[in-house]
Amino acid sequence: MDLVPALEEPLKKVLGPPTAKVMAEHLGLHTVGDLLHHYPRRYEERGQLTHLADLPMDEHVTVVAMVADARLHTFASSKAPRGKGQRLEVTITDGSGRLQLVFFGNGVHKPHKELLPGTRAMFAGKVSVFNRRLQLAHPAYELLRGDSEETVETWAGALIPIYPATAKLESWKIGKAVQTVLPSAQEAVDPVPAALREGRGLVPLPEALLKIHRPHTKADIEDARSRLKWDEAFVLQVALARRRHADAQLPAVARKPMPDGLLTAFDDRLPFTLTEGQQKVSKEIFDDLATEHPMHRLLQGEVGSGKTMVALRAMLAVVDAGGQAAMLAPTEVLAQQHHRSIVEMMGELAEGGMLGGAEQATKVVVLTGSMGAAARRQALLDLVTGEAGIVIGTHALIEDKVQFHDLGLVVVDEQHRFGVEQRDALRGKGKQPPHLLVMTATPIPRTVAMTVFGDLETSVLDQLPAGRSPIASHVVPAADKPHFLARAWERVREEVGNGHQAYVVCPRIGDEEDDPKKAGKKKSPEDEAEKRPPLAVLDVADQLAKGPLQGLKVEVLHGRMHPDDKDAVMRRFAAGETDVLVATTVIEVGVNVPNATAMVIMDADRFGVSQLHQLRGRVGRGSAPGLCLLVTEMPEASTARQRLNSVASTLDGFELSRIDLEQRREGDVLGQAQSGARTSLRMLAVIEDEEIIAEAREEAATLVAADPELEHLPGLRTALDALLDEEREQYLEKG
What we know:
Blueprint: H1 11-15, H2 17-27, H3 32-36, E1 42-45, E2 60-75, E3 85-93, E4 98-104, H4 109-114, E5 120-130, E6 133-137, E7 140-143, H5 149-155, E8 159-162, H6 171-181, H7 194-199, H8 205-213, H9 218-249, H10 262-269, H11 276-289, E9 296-301, H12 307-320, E10 324-328, H13 332-346, E11 363-367, H14 373-385, E12 388-393, E13 407-413, H15 420-427, E14 435-440, H16 446-452, E15 457-461, E16 471-477, H17 482-497, E17 501-505, H18 516-519, H19 525-530, H20 537-546, E18 554-557, H21 563-574, E19 580-583, E20 596-601, H22 609-616, E21 626-632, H23 639-649, H24 653-663, H25 666-673, H26 690-706, H27 714-723, H28 726-734
Helix pairs in contact: 8-9, 9-26, 9-27, 10-12, 11-12, 16-26
């Protein structure tokens, strides 16, 4: 919500090119408005300091503390062989703890003069450990004096703002830059209509910006925060409400299933009854399909809650009504698998035009990039003539050559793996906009759904079909208790002994080293710390086959295999010919082998919470109970281990998605969903601010219904344009 025109002034002009360059490169700030919206992360009170006792390792920190003592040592080194090397050690304290600062060489002179015992200052640097003690080497610092004009001005406020900073630009330098541009805040155009602002008791935007950067009291900070959070929620929800409003104006063909048609025939041959949840969600979908505006629905369901069945019934309803349905899957393995299971569920209803096909039958075709030319030609022909009512494919469906007779419904599986451009390209293949159903098995908390997929109506499947077994999950601490790992492999042998199968999942494939570009790459601090790369499929499979799982049939599956080989491996596993499948996360989505009851996830700490939940959903799909073992070498106290404990303690995906969100900041979640555009949320916390988002959504809907073009709200239009710069506007349109 960067505002014009004073706030569009480039920082180069105001702060000078060197500072502006660092701000642009490291913080993504380009204009005065960007900088005004770079809010302090927290505030230090003059009398209260950051607890030195709580400093995080390896992070860039800013602390306010007092010098307790300072000592200059001389030493001999290769550069200063005659004992002329100098090292200044300064100990600082804040009452809660002590921290050592070190300066070397020529860098000692200035701090030696300035950092005298009793001096108070802000220090910024990266926390490291030396001789088992925390220290900051060569920290930047700013003395807190109360004498010269400028510092009296700067530090007069009782609260010192601490900004999200980088090694190149300390918090207090950002503070000074903010001080320079703060007068422009008076010209900020307020996006929230006055009546709404007064009704909610929100302070005007210029006042909020002043209070967030220069608060005198804690109440100032609260006022500013509630106002700025409301802005973010409201402007985003207005954008989404306009999107929904525009979609509702589009024409679409209403698709009502025929009585006694394909859908009825399919329902009659189902060997089980649908769960209440499936019936309720199906009704919502059928109601949408029956209208003359395109459906835009998000179907989220727990792993294994029967989303595919709901989607298939929607596709059959559209075929019944004379249209075609396309299902877009993220990988070939998954497209093939959906095709197999749909054809199986439909039986002779999938044999349209063939000998033995039922009279209401249609044809179900699959279309992927690696198909042979003849099969591909036939599939394309079936689509253009309308012979095939249902097509399942990967992004091969999106190519220009693919044409439909009458595309009525697009089902997107696992939407978070598709760019919106791809969804849009497929939607463009209908004569009129087709209906859209987006499915995800990654449960999304309600507020994230309102924020990221705010232009879709949401349906939730939260019951598991009857006959599904619970999955027991346990963390296996391989480093602390190696005998637990040995026991894990015994458990796998026991499952296989009982006629079942198992997965072993690893983070890497193991043939990456051949790539010279990657081999020379710098390792991340985590890898350095652990001194070993993540475990790889090829190595683990080899060790297991020769060691703890000797005598069992072990196969591997990963993304770089030829599609035919992948398919062959999956078929053998599904047929029960393979005992143990060692794989990467290619099995994460949709792979369905009811006889697989155990899964061992190696280096489980390297996967995200929702990814672990997805993977775990591959076992316990039959009537036998499932077992998931999360193997890690992380120490008991680490956050990684806590994360694994939370996955082991609950099977509720919505609960896990909340935990996941609280641990990763929302920025990441929204950042991914917003196709790489800078996340617009600086102040809003998607989980905590659920009420604000829900209220903003209602206000936005009311406002857009009354004035879709926002003709009477120029301030709001300006803020929207800034939020939806070209890239984002298109993103939301395609959403």
